């Protein structure tokens, strides 16, 4: 099973991805997490350090794929989760999506891509071009991480559009939304009423989760010493259990931008004046 994790930048994709990878490993699966971001920081709470990237290794080997070995690019992390960072071009130069394709190509060359029960792509930010959507070409399911805010749901709607487009030519489904770092879900519920998508889990705001990346550890690792966090681990185990049933998934149709603006503004507006101003801007 191959999973692509998307969501607005800063919504907690890497934190969810790392803990979900561990949850899947706890269920007996061999897991590979691929960080798909030039910042190459997806897996550092799993590995304990910033591992060398695929781009670094290819440059070091003068792009001779035949000279690259598994141990050059795959690093074992916490709970046996293997880690890869695709890396990417310098900021403002090149295409990060192209590097994802090269990463998959290399993993196939070294006979590693099909050696895992689960491969999880942790993808940077919103989908703004085909390059950012490249991991969807290799995935069975997309997972969207969102909070209960307008910006994250607006990004989620764009990701839905990308899934719909990719599903025309690939066997791709949207497994569902994961609400992260939120005490409320009223906007999430409003959105899925108009764009039906399963909600796999709502993960609340917990200090231990927010501090985990600062501490350079996953929630599961911290929970070994701070036992109350075991209850938090159950959120990720629940998501893993749902995914391991190989859910049917959906291919929803995104909402038009103006409709989405009106839908969410009607939920959050405090006055008629606010709604009138928004309607004026959308004319």
From TrEMBL:
Compartments where found: Plastid, Chloroplast
**UniProt xrefs under SUPFAM superfamilies:** P-loop containing nucleoside triphosphate hydrolases (SSF52540)
What Enzyme Commission number does this protein have? 1.3.7.7
Q: How is the cofactor bound?
A: Binds 1 [4Fe-4S] cluster per dimer.
Q: Give an example GO cellular component term for this record.
A: chloroplast
- What is the top-level taxon of the source organism? Eukaryota
**Positions annotated to bind ATP:** 10-15, 39, 180-181
Q: What is this protein called?
A: Light-independent protochlorophyllide reductase iron-sulfur ATP-binding protein
Per the record, the gene is chlL
Q: Name one GO molecular function term.
A: 4 iron, 4 sulfur cluster binding
Source taxonomy lineage?
Answer: Eukaryota, Viridiplantae, Chlorophyta, Chloropicophyceae, Chloropicales
Q: Which reactions does this protein catalyse?
A: chlorophyllide a + oxidized 2[4Fe-4S]-[ferredoxin] + 2 ADP + 2 phosphate = protochlorophyllide a + reduced 2[4Fe-4S]-[ferredoxin] + 2 ATP + 2 H2O
**Which residues, if any, are the signal sequence?**
none
Question: From its record, what is one biological process in GO terms?
Answer: photosynthesis, dark reaction
User: To which species is this protein native?
Assistant: Chloroparvula pacifica
**Keyword Lipid biosynthesis applies:** no
Q: Which family does it belong to?
A: Belongs to the NifH/BchL/ChlL family.
Please list the cofactors this protein needs.
[4Fe-4S] cluster
Q: Which InterPro entries match?
A: NifH/chlL_CS, NifH/frxC, P-loop_NTPase, Protochlorophyllide_ATP-bd
Q: What class of enzyme is it?
A: oxidoreductase
Q: Its pathway? A: Porphyrin-containing compound metabolism; chlorophyll biosynthesis (light-independent)
- Quaternary structure annotation from Swiss-Prot or TrEMBL: Homodimer. Protochlorophyllide reductase is composed of three subunits; ChlL, ChlN and ChlB.
């Amino acid at each position: 099973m191959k999973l692509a994790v998307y969501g607005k930048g800063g919504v907690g994709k890497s934190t969810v991805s790392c803990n979900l990878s561990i949850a899947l490993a706890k269920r007996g699966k061999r897991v590979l997490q691929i960080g798909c971001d030039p910042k190459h920081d997806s897996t550092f709470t799993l590995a304990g350090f910033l591992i060398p990237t695929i781009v670094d290794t290819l440059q070091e080997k003068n792009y001779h794929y035949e000279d690259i070995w598994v141990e050059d690019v795959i690093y074992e992390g916490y709970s046996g989760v293997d880690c890869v960072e695709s890396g990417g071009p310098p900021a403002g130069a090149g295409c990060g999506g192209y590097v994802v394709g090269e990463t998959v190509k290399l993993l196939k060359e070294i006979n590693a891509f099909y050696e895992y029960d689960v491969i999880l792509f942790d993808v940077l930010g919103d989908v703004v071009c085909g390059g950012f959507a490249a991991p969807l070409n290799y995935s069975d399911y997309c997972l969207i991480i969102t909070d209960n805010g307008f910006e994250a749901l607006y990004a989620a709607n764009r990701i839905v559009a990308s899934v719909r487009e990719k599903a025309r030519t690939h066997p791709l489904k949207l497994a569902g939304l994961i609400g992260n770092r939120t005490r409320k879900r009223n906007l999430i519920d409003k959105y899925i009423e108009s764009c039906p998508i399963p909600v796999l889990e709502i993960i609340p705001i917990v200090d231990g989760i927010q501090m985990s990346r600062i501490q350079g550890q996953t929630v599961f690792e911290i929970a070994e010493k701070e036992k109350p966090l075991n209850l938090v681990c159950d959120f990720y185990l629940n998501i893993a259990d749902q995914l391991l049933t190989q859910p049917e998934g959906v291919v929803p149709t995104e909402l038009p931008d103006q409709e989405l603006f009106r839908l969410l503004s009607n939920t959050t507006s405090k006055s008629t004046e606010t709604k009138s101003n928004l309607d004026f801007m959308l004319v």
